[in-house]
Amino acid sequence: MTIRRPSDHRPGPGPGPGPGPGARRRAARAALPALAAAAALALAAPAAASAHVEVGPESASPGETVDLAIAVGHGCDGSGTTAVSIAIPAGIAAVTPIQSPDWDVALTAVDGVRTLTYTAERPLPDPVRGQMHAQVVLRDDLAPGDVLELPAQQTCEEGAYAWDDLGPDAEESMPIIQVVEAAPAQDALAVAETTPASQPLTIAALVAAVVAALLATVALRRQAGIRAGEAAR
Predict the structure, then answer these.
(1) 223 in a structural domain
(2) Distances 117 to 2, 3, 230 between C-alpha atoms, Å
(3) 19 burial class (0-12, 13-18, 19+ CB within 10 angstroms)?
(4) pLDDT digit string (tens) for 198-231?
(5) Basic and acidic residues composition bias: which ranges (predicted)?
(6) pLDDT band at 70 (very low <50, low <70, confident <90, very high)
(7) pLDDT value of position 206
(8) What are 95-98's contacts with CB under 8 Å, separation 24+?
(9) In this structure, is residue 175 part of a structural domain?
(10) Is residue 162 part of a domain?
(11) What is the per-residue pLDDT for 230?
(12) How far apart are CA 87 and CA 134, in angstroms?
């Protein structure tokens, strides 16, 4: 079973801190370095991503259903990509191929090993980034910290790459999914008590107040008319 424990993988970097409060102009000036860094990362991302066959998202929780994006960033030493195969680990309970533009997709099982194979309708040129899709369901008995390995095979018009290495110095890094703890669910009862129930009561109270005000106005005007008539007599 291709599941690794925390000691066998490197955790990914977490999100950076957000901007602090302040006046509008000071906040704008303070944001300039962050914007510049983000722009640099955006420019560098295609170059870094082109070095691997990648699978995203790279993390999911036990029992979760996720839509995977499988990306290939380059060919084989200049030769166009004709097919990409992904071995599905035992930690994935179910997998559903999703039709992806420009790719024919097939799910096969041989000796209990499931493989997703995407075949290009025409070779994907070497510098062009391609993307395929699938939906998977993680087993609910997985534990946070487990790592699902998805060895990938890239086939080109000439040559091939086997993306199945995991070491820190791996030249052909294997795609993985890190199993993380599920986010706490929102308290449905609290939401039902604070939103659906209170909203109709608030609207009803507002309508009642408006009707009462109108009735009071009509009554006052009627009394004023009666008094005016009596005074005229």
Answers:
(1) no
(2) 19, 21, 96
(3) exposed
(4) 455 456 656 666 666 666 665 656 665 655 555 5
(5) 1-11
(6) very high
(7) 61
(8) 95/134, 95/135, 95/136, 95/137, 96/134, 96/135, 96/136, 97/134, 98/67, 98/132, 98/133, 98/134, 98/135
(9) yes
(10) yes
(11) 57
(12) 13
Which token pair is 124? 């994907």
Query: 90 is written with which tokens?
Result: 């035992």
Are the CB atoms for 32 and 47 separated by under 8 Å? no
Write the CATH number for 58. Answer: 2.60.40.2230
End-to-end CA distance of the chain: 103
- Same domain (yes/no): 165, 210: no
Distance CA 118, CA 16 (A): 35
Q: What is the pLDDT of residues 98-107, one digit of tens each?
A: 999 999 999 9
Domain count, the chain: 2
pLDDT digit string, tens, across residues 162-179:
999 887 677 778 999 999
